[in-house]
Amino acid sequence: xxxxxxxxxxxxxxxxxxxxxxxxDLPAEARAEALSRADAAPEARERAARMLAQDxxxxxxxxxxxxxxxxxxxxxxxxxxxxxxxxGRWLLLDRLGQGGMATVYRARSLQPPLDQIAxxxxxxxxxxxPAGRVRFEREIDILVRLRHxxxxxxxxxxxxxxxxPWFAMALVEGVSIDAWCQEQGLDVDRRVALLLQVCxxxxxxxxxxxxxxxxxxxxxxxxxxxxAVLLDFGISRLLxxxxxxxxxxxxFTPRFAAPEQLSGGDISTASDVFSLACLLHALLLGAPxxxxxxxxxxxxxxxxxxxxxxxxxxxxxxxxxxxxLRRALARDPARRYPxxxxxxxxxxxxxxxxPVAARRGGAGYRLRRxxxxxxxxxxxxxxxxxxxxxxxxxxxxxxxxxxxxxxxxRAAQAExxxxxxxxxxxxARAEALNDFLLGLFDASSPERPRDALPTTAxxxxxxxxxxxDPDSGPPGLRARMLTAIARVHxxxxxxxxxxxxxxxxxxxxxxxxxxxGEALVEALLLQARLASARGDxxxxxxxxxxxxRSAPRRxxxxxxxxxxxxxxxxxxxxxxxxxxxxxxxxxxxxxxxxMPALPPARxxxxxGDLALAYLSARQHAxxxxxxxxxxxxxxxxxxxxxxxxxIALANSAQNLVSxxxxxxxxxxxxxxxxxxxxxxxxxxxxxxxxxxxxxxLWTRQGxxxxxxxxxDAGIAEWARSQGRPLQGFAYAHYFRLEPLAAAGRWQALExxxxxxxxxxxxxxxxxxxxxxxxxxxxxxxCRRGDAAAGxxxxxxxxxxxxxxxxxDPTLRAGVDEAEAYCQAAAGRLDAAIAALDAAxxxxxxxxxxxxxxxxxxxxxxARWLRQxxxxxxxxxxxxxxxxxxxxxxxPAGRPWPATAATD
Length: 903
What we know:
About 40% of the residues are buried. Helices cover about 60% and strands about 5% of the residues. α5 (about 130-145) runs antiparallel to α8 (about 235-245), α20 packs parallel to α22 (about 520-535) and α21 runs antiparallel to α22. It has 40 helices and 9 strands. It is mostly helical and about 900 residues long.
């Protein structure tokens, strides 16, 4: 059933229930006429009629449950006494199977959605103790949130009176994945593709902090549409404690279990990676891996493909696929893929002919992979040249533009000569740069074979030497080459090599009056960007000012001048002036749209920058259409430029969080993180930022433990991406503050806020974060009763606030709220309520997604008013909080928590 059909079905049931309740009190003879006149859809009237017809008749719902529900007791009875009985909303129809851990029944729902069919599992290990019940309910709550087409969803669950836990999940009709592969005669590539479906499902669960721990062929069914569906997610997790107490150990299948599972060690996502690799081994070779005696690694899969028909399989396993499989099957978890996403990324790379991370091959290996994908020699050489000269990507565009301008010049009269001269200069420059680049391939080392390609390092060093040679060309051309080489070093964060090259490029470009200033602008612009990466805003501002003065003046502006103005806007963003940045970017985008020769990708990037500026300015409604337009445009090109698509996904998800569209935001964060996992096999700031933003989403949904875990993952990745130790990394504490405050964990908040304050104070440019840290620290201190210390910290926050004229208005509201708690801690409720009133003056600055803060303040104000005996005023604030919650229980997202954190 489609989403639209599901929604319509639910609406019919709701209307039918309303009709049923309205007609129930009428005499039986009057019901039919009233029903026929009811203003409702035919489907709703028909369902109401069925319910009315059943009214008063005894049925299965009236049967009592048997006293014994444990599967062990069922076997003792003649037949199966549970069939025909009810558990929760489910009627047990027939028994599907029984194992050591559970008995499975086919069940039908007796409540809307009526007649829904499920597989209901009665777990054989009881959860009768209070701790067991709490644990079961907590685990089921996690499993119910898993929503992925490759995971059989859990509908609901319960615990019978005797302590027997049960849960109902989707009943999947299909065959096991290994049987499906045999029946369909799938080749190696299609079997790997099928396993990738399972990987996506497992990776989704890992994002929700759930590990399967029993992945095997019998737990993966393939339905009639060829879709792999993973069953029994979390069953081992549900049974873990009870099974351990009974001496059985939690359930798993030894032949598909990781070594750490067999030895009773720590279970992690790497354990599921191992089981997925065992499953792939079984799909390819018909059996799980074989292990020698002792502590060695598994037998080489290629050596097990002995049949004559296994020729293609042997070739694949001796190549990259074998490397991928052996890494995933490593006995030591630290040597496996760290995540399922990384494992899946290598499998996809193998299918697409790209290099795999497991191979760790050098330039020759990457070249062979490249040639295998692109058979035409000329195309491969052209692409190789472009990949080696990252900074020369504009050459082809300049040449094309030059030819276009030359053609137009021949058709014009008055402006023909000037346009032709300019076009010919640009064409000559592009061709000279092209010749310069191609000439680098003559620079092989003397000991290198004549037909061997030089390495990237040799090309860059050779290019720098040629650029310094006055005979290589005019100064502007040589400055461009030095800038291109410096750009490559900058992308690798090799600033000590990039900086001197750029200094030489600037000197050369200043000495070439015939270059129209473009070479100088390009060098200054790159200097500014590298200085920005190091936080040197003074150098950024100085270089951008000279670059704008030096840029050629014409209408429409030159592309390089648009780049300079875009970088100026980014500097304004760093200086916390987002509205100024947005206004400047609007002008740049308007100029860019008047330039038909400008590549669409340039215009696309400008839209992304403008959206980021609006997002920083908290103009969330204005950002929404920009991101939707960006995503629609980038989706068509996602495979060729996955990074830009992923960035737009993550940024748009962050904006949706602010607007309160939580479900769609969570989906986009998941898609963005999977894309980053495909793109990067080492820590990077993109993935870290997405994880931290996802933590903010989960905080707003009241999922505080998940929010803290996501924040910790993002923090750790961020530190590693910068090569910094986690200890002493200021953000290691800062990004934990919001979920701790929302959860009301004041002792932990005080500890983390003190550490964050010390770390942030040691770095420049953290004024807003320092204010937020101090206001949360003050609140934690005052809520714990230390009003004097809280007021001292609060005074520091107010001083910083006065010195930051471009501050976020919600900071002022947060400081006023902390003031309220400090006044309350000192016993001054009148002053506390006045401080909350001051915070309320900034309510209009909060986007819908942050309204939990407003609800929290309303609830607190109501509590204090009641303490003062003003029940009427307290009721008004509680009513306003209720109205805000009702308005924000959006269909697109999980409703707000009913209560915010309180004392």
